[in-house]
Amino acid sequence: MRGFRAALVLVGALLLQASVIGPIEIAGARPDVVLLVPVVAALVAGPDRGAVAGFAAGLAADAVLWRTTPFGLAALSYCLTGYLVGSFQAGVLRATWWLPVAAAALGSAAGLIAFAVAGTVVGLVGAVSGSLLAMIAVVAIVNAALVLPATRLGRWVEAPADRLLPLGRR
Amino acid sequence: MALSRRSGRSRLTLIVLILSSVTVLTLDFRGAGVIDDVRGAAGTVFSPLEGAVDTVTNPFSDAWNGITGYDDLEAENEALRQRLDQIDGDEVRNEDAAGQLEDLAELEDLSFTGAIDTVVARVVSGPQTNFEQSIQLDKGSDDGLAEGMPVVTEAGLVGRIVSITGSRSVVQLVTEAGFDLGVRHVPSQTVGFAQGAGIGAPIRVDEGIGPSVEVEEGDALTTSGVSRSIFPPDIPVGRVTSIRSSADQLAQELAVEPLADLANLSYVRVMLWEPSA
Q: Could you say which of A57, A152, B209, B220 would form a disulfide bridge with B252 (CB–CB 3.0 to 4.6 Å)?
């Protein structure tokens, strides 16, 4: 049941990226809400789950969104993102409201940098360029803005079946 | 103790996932068919869902792009207005404007596609993420398309098909970083080597155009069509926007603006031509 909810959220994120968020270009860069999947999984369930969710989301994105980049690049960078965000959160002693926001912004930036660096290593021409800064800024800001409602969705995915409540009552 | 054990397990999970990613990347680089099959199958399943969502969300995306691209639209509108004024002026000045118009109409019919058959396809989606510039067409191998076929508009080269399923094909745009092609500088007929330079950047010609070749801004470039070229000859590619000498002074580096309007593609033509033909 938890797997089904996770798959549902992942497909929703892919569709949102493909049809709504992806076509929007801001300063030559596009937001990336699929990167929110590992970030939220890590915030809700720790680095282990963050890395697994990142790998799954990355593979799915490699298959349907990243049509001309090397297959596996998004899986690699997203799973690193999930692990880093989960470790960052685990290392913080006191939770505050802005922690997920900061984690989403930093995690998104780290994910894009990991993608660009790994991409350059495997021969993706132009991955590290001047436009990378614009991409980092756009993705980090959009994901920081969306992380709080997305975390609510993440808690819904993680909740045991017998304790499921409507999203609005969490 | 428990925390340390959990941390150790997380690290193990991460290592396994990184190794899995590297394995997948290696399979892709080695050209394993399974990767293309996975992408094809995922695309086949995902496309109808995406199409359904697009139908609902397109008006909102268009509205957003209209708002954010307002300045560009205004500048483009102004440029078009000036061009129209210029054409009006030329028409008045030309005594045999009607004759010229006939000539232009004939030229219009003389497509650069020549004897190569083409298939018209609709662009169903543009780039959806950072780091890649591709579009998706509503036609695939069922319509006679194949990997490697050139995609054009009436203005010139758009890109080429890099992956295909029965009903869809993915086109890598000519401006994508790493897109390589042979070009011919039309005034001098010199053959050079061009490559895409990424989002928002012009195409770069950095090999083949020696320092002795006379190049001016506005000069046209077409595909070279030399032996084993991935494109047929004489497809318009773009116009030179800037020229500079290479660091070693052995060549000229040209920035080339594509003739096809890659940001606003609705319909394109796929030339039924394969590199091996």
A: B209
